[in-house]
Amino acid sequence: MTSVDLLTRRTWLRRSALMTTGMSLSGLLGRLAAQAAEDPRRKRSCILLWMAGGPSQLDTFDLKPTHTNGGPFKEIATAASGVKISEHLPQLARQMNRLAILRSMRTREGDHERATSHLRTGYLPQGPIRFPSLGALVSNELADLDADLPGFVSVLPQGAFSQSAVAAGFLGSSHAPLVVAGSGETLKVEDLKPPSVSAQRSHERLELLHTMEASFLASRRGTGTTSHVTAYDRAVRLGRKAAARAFDLSQEKDRLRDQYGRSLFGQGCLLARRLIERGVPFVEVTLGGWDTHDNNFEQVKSLCGVLDPAWATLIEDLKDRGLLDSTLLVWMGEFGRTPGINPRNGRDHYPGAWSVVLGGGGIKGGQTIGRTSKDGSTVEDRPVSAPDLIATICLALGLDPKKQNLSNVNRPIRLADPSCEPVKEVLA
Amino acid sequence: MVQGRIRILVLILIVGMSFVRSAVAGPRDAKELAARIDRRLENHWKAEKIQPAPHSDDAEFLRRIYLDITGRIPRPADAHGFLSDNSADKRGQLIDQLLESPRFAIHFANIWRAELLPEIATNREAGVFQRGFENWLRERFRAGVGYDQLVRELLTVPIAAKGQDAEPVLRDPERPNPLAFFAVKAARPENLAAAVSRSMLGIRLECAQCHNHPFAKWKREQFWSQAAFFAGLRKQGDGLFAPLTESADRHEISASWSGKLLQAAFLDSSTPKWQEGRGPRTVLAEWITSRDNPYFARAAVNRMWGYFFGTGLVDPVDDFRDDNPPSDVDLLDDLAHSFVESGFDLSFLIRGICLSRTYQRTSARTNPSQDNTRLPARMAVKAMTAEQFFDSLALATGYREDQDKGAARRQFLARFALASSVSEPETSVQQALTLLNGRFISWATDPEKSPTLIAATQTPGMSLAQRIETLYLATISRKPNPEELDHLERYVRRAKSNREAERLADVFWTLLNSAEFRMNH
Predict the structure, then answer these.
(1) What does pTM read for this prediction?
(2) Staple B310 to which of A78, B300, B380, B445, CB 3.0 to 4.6 Å?
(3) Predicted ipTM of the assembly
(4) Could you tell me if residue A108 is left (phi over 0), alpha (psi between -120 and 50 degrees) or otherwise beta?
(5) Do B514 and A212 touch (CB under 8 A)?
């Protein structure tokens, strides 16, 4: 397919999409106008560092060194005066003036699946409504559907792709995450390249597909065929050199790769930067293993050894490239851990009082928000719910949390639950 | 004498069987229902000046009816047989045959499970209940029980009384298990009330859980009065797997917003008659499935209409309310009445719908006026469930689950889970990549490994045209038209003769990636 072909085909597609999905012209113009009116520097991206399993707040960002609940870890001073964090996050401590810790998360779900859905969508599961995850929400608002790269990339998601937590829900497949999986030490987009098929043959097959399905597509114009052609078009563009190169980490200097850490998560953070740089509005990178019912302290220490260099280098790297001010960083899991230490030297699930960290674009760094009690068991100041957090993230990205999308049950659903009270004091 | 006795016995058997299958309705009634559907719609087309699409050809009908009733495309041999059959009533015969096939029970169990337990799509723990619940539904569909009986059996499944040993909700994941419905809803009265109202009555009562319904007449009290029928249920422990007990004499609930004690009451505001020995679930089930219930049969026929046509007469199919009227209220009432008269026989209803010219119209858009109606002036292009798609893919390629212990099936079910409404099929980039480049497609289009390709390329004595035709029948269940055949023959011949198998593999790859294969049209 020549580029001229592609262009006309895409123009046709967009026109037919307009005609057949019933999208109103005024709606489209409205959006274009809004985009033009926006200061280009205001357009933001988001990197979510997802800590699957529920990280221990008491051993990372809300230590209780004077209480028996505190455990063996020590606090260290950071670049932000008065803000102290765990001794096992020394590099991050130097970046603390770019980060804000919310120490007063208070949610109710203590089950991994329900809590994950809750924190990733901002809603509690409700019957048949398929709530979109944060990545899909942001993609829906900020993605350029004509770009070669998708609007939502999920690096190393745990488990199946169908999990509601990483899914697009009622926003539909065009905002479904593109998954980057890890195998061995490398990250790759599954099925990006045809195995053992020459470029020539691959090209011929696509030509054949294009020709052979033309009459079916023409006779059945509508959402289904439009979506089919669009997805194939994007998949093929994604396979092309420039787009595929975004995923090729060998383009980076060895030294920088070492600084991120040669863990899958570390390299995933580097990949996130490459994608953000190329205009992808939302990238999430998962670090699992935080479900520390046993040997909490050994495990948290080892996880921090992976997290600390990756995250700190990401901040530095984004800053070096002038991207930090337009990139929101979110560090969170589905809940925290119990302040009390169990007989197996572990900590169990605890949604009652825990921490989330925000940083980068849109965030006033170098501060802590909220406070937990001396033993860490309750929130004493400024409780933050999951909807509050989602609304805060929306505002930091320049999105209106009250904006509504039409759900699969034809009921309008706001980006954040109407009960939300955004944490305004954390916004820059 | 002996002969006479056998004759009587046979008579009793036949009468008995037809009594189980359908109390009143026979095949003739289904044809009459189909004719009434068509008449009603013809009137619409005339009044609205709409030019409906023409009748589908045999191949289009064949693929559609297989996907709709059995959940997958036809085998090539079945496709061949049907296409070369010249009998006048072959479509009707095929519908009957498919409704009797085991695949009907398998597919409809899957469809109803997705409706009754949507939680499974997002909660892996709940997923453990899927097999048992579907196995129970399959058994009931195979036994041909009426829809009313199915719902009664589901709602009144025995649960141990308080004080007795609690009822385990899961023994063996494979064992038919209607109790899964209660377990997955965490046995909470409000979850059960919402699910029962939505799935069985077509009413979205859950919006009234927290506030009076903004668009409909439902009040918060009514939601909690419906929930009160389940107020006696108790989970003995935490989590979805905790066993259950029930205090069957309890039919009041304290509503979460006021703490006010509310008595169980039906949604039509009538008051239940309580009797010794009839628990609240039985009382509710009897009201729901009664012939006079104003919602039950309408909701069921509307759901089936929505299933076969992509859009319900009331749409969304579970959103009956005053300001969301049906596109044809008389048709809805006629369908509901006929369904009740048939003894709530789903097969009868399906026959009636599928025999209609309306169902058998082509999905090709032949006139712009066809876009201006909620009634089906042409068949909708429908999305496939992940199961429909993968099971079709498996049949087309010759995949067998034992070759990889079901790994490919699991991957596809996760990746191709239906994310949109049926009438708006969607394809994601990840799905496109899987079908363009994935491991399964590489296997399926490898001329040395793919069973279908081996048959199509290595069977001696076939012409190139026949080989191409074999691939068409295996995938999109039709023969190529002359232009397609000409184009593909030239495509294959353009390569050196020793690469014919590879070129045929390209043809197969193209068919598997086509929109025509991906959708139900």
Answers:
(1) 0.82
(2) B380
(3) 0.89
(4) alpha
(5) yes
